[in-house]
């Protein structure tokens, strides 16, 4: 066991020459630090990251005090390995729009990456259009319009008034256009189908509400890259921090724990260049859709199924849920349904499933079902509904793909009855739907409006409900 003697920072740790900022990241969470920052460090070709938090300054304050340094704990079934990540060279409060605008305006900055959660894009169902009826979106548009004619390019006047991540990005892009207008790439790293197009829809929704010429400049100069991102990264616990201190001798206030597996598949242009992420294992393809479906359906779909069905059966983590043979049977059924529509041999679905079983079973990764279960209305629309629709188009009943939705209904109903908060952009509407006489169609409408009007689907869900605890 090591004796803790020092805090982790650039004085105590020899980080070498830090690279200049060439990437701006929005959403300074655990995943960015386990994934994009790790790939960028391994690429080793001189790209530094300036990262901004999403909703509160806390993560930036902690990381800035460590000069951006943190320990990445790679937690395999048999033990941990530790690596200090040095590619994040600056950490900022996401509300600091002056810093954001100044950085995005710089010619050397060629890439913006995003991990702002599915809910962070503020899109209407279908992910093709900004939800301008959302109160935060409406307030952000008002704030952007009020300041656009004044000092918009430097962002000073906006401060914390603009809260949506993509509205903030629009402030940065406006500053870049005003500076000289060099093209740039925006890479979404969130678990959304067509995440590049979703990011574009969200950014253009804000930009066009402010200035159609700005929107046109974005269309002409900003490349929205699709990416399928994968590395299971649970929230860091206090025990993790203690274990890092014991193992490394550094008192790191902000380590990140992740699994050994990592994957990043990207499709799109990088007009201003990019790190050689391929040298770190990233894969560049022309069309991402099949890879994205494989990941969103098999990994994330199974995650959501376990998050709700596992919680109903009294489990707390993915590894515990998977160890329950009833739950793992439902996961296999769901995978069989999804696999019917993932037929390209290049996808190697049997191998991918086998690897997922091992990854999910890793008992040393405590991935809490409560974290995965958040924002269920958005996640189920991307992870379960498309599998159900594909099964139905093929003439089958698709029950295995309705199970995650039925489990979500039972779980949120249980939470509402217990007076617990349901973390979801539709949270208040979930509470109302759970209180109606005919809950099932009311809840289903929050996931998919069209399906809620189909009597056979509602009947199939009703038949599944109440079956999870047996
Ligand atoms: N954790 C994983 O295993 C994993 C794997 C693949 C993809 N992802 C993607 O990354 C996202 C973030 O995961 P994480 O583990 O870093 O979570 P996290 O809670 O550690 O960090 C999330 C970051 O996004 C910000 N954020 C949260 N809600 C937001 C909102 N509505 N608008 C703007 N910013 C918001 C937070 O402030 C924080 O900076 C996920 O939602 C997912 O889309 C995560
Ligand atoms: O990150 P979310 O909230 O979109 O989804 C929760 C998990 O399913 C997800 O984080 C997976 O662990 C991840 O996608 C694995 O790469």
From TrEMBL:
Signal peptide (UniProt feature, chain positions): none
Catalytic activity field: D-mannitol 1-phosphate + NAD(+) = beta-D-fructose 6-phosphate + NADH + H(+)
Keyword Oxidoreductase (UniProt): yes
Molecular function, one GO term: mannitol-1-phosphate 5-dehydrogenase activity
Keyword vocabulary terms for this entry: Oxidoreductase
Domain of life: Bacteria
InterPro entries found in the cross-reference section: 6-PGluconate_DH-like_C_sf, 6PGD_dom2, Mannitol_DH, Mannitol_DH/Oxidoreductase, Mannitol_DH_C, Mannitol_DH_N, NAD(P)-bd_dom_sf
Name of the molecule in the record: Mannitol dehydrogenase family protein
Species for this entry: Tessaracoccus rhinocerotis
């Amino acid at each position: 066991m090591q004796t803790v003697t020092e805090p982790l920072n650039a004085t105590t740790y020899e980080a070498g020459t830090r690279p200049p900022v060439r990437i701006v990241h929005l959403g300074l969470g655990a995943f960015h630090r386990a994934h994009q920052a790790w790939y960028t460090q391994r690429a080793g070709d001189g790209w530094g990251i300036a990262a901004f938090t999403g909703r509160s300054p806390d993560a930036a304050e902690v990381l800035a005090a460590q000069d951006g340094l943190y320990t990445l704990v790679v937690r395999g079934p048999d033990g941990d390995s530790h690596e200090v990540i040095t590619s994040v060279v600056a950490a900022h409060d996401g509300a600091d729009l002056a810093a954001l605008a100044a950085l995005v305006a710089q010619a050397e900055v060629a890439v913006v990456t995003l991990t702002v959660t599915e809910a962070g894009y503020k899109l209407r169902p279908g992910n093709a259009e900004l939800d301008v009826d959302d109160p935060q979106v409406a307030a952000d548009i008002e704030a952007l319009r009020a300041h656009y004619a004044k000092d918009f390019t430097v962002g000073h006047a906006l401060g914390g008034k603009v809260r949506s991540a993509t509205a903030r990005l629009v402030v940065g892009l406006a500053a870049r256009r005003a500076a000289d207008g060099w093209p740039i790439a925006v890479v979404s790293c969130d678990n959304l189908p067509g995440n590049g197009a979703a990011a574009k829809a969200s950014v253009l929704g804000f930009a066009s509400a402010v200035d159609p010429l700005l929107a046109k400049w974005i269309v002409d100069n900003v490349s929205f890259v699709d990416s399928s991102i994968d590395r299971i990264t649970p929230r860091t616990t206090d025990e993790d921090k203690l274990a890092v201190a014991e193992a490394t001798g550094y008192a790191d206030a902000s380590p990140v724990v992740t699994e050994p597996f990592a994957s990043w598949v990207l499709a799109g242009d990088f007009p201003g260049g990019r790190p050689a992420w391929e040298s770190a294992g990233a894969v560049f393809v022309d069309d991402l859709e099949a890879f994205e479906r494989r990941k969103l359906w098999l990994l994330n779909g199974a995650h959501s199924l376990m998050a709700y069905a596992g919680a109903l059966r009294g489990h707390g983590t993915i590894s515990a849920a998977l160890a329950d043979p009833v739950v793992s049977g439902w996961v296999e059924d769901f995978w069989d349904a999804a696999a019917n529509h993932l037929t390209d041999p290049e996808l190697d679905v049997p191998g991918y499933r086998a690897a997922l079983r091992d990854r999910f079973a890793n008992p040393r990764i405590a991935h809490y079902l409560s974290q995965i279960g958040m924002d269920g209305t958005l996640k189920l629309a991307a992870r379960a509904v498309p599998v159900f629709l594909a099964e139905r188009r093929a003439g089958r009943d698709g029950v295995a793909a309705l199970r995650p939705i039925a489990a979500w209904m039972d779980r949120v109903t249980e939470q509402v009855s217990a007076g617990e908060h349901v973390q979801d952009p539709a949270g208040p509407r979930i509470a109302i739907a759970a209180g109606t006489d005919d809950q099932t169609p009311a809840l289903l409408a929050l996931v998919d409006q069209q399906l809620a009007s189909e009597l056979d689907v509602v009947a199939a869900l009703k038949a599944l409900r109440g079956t999870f605890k047996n």
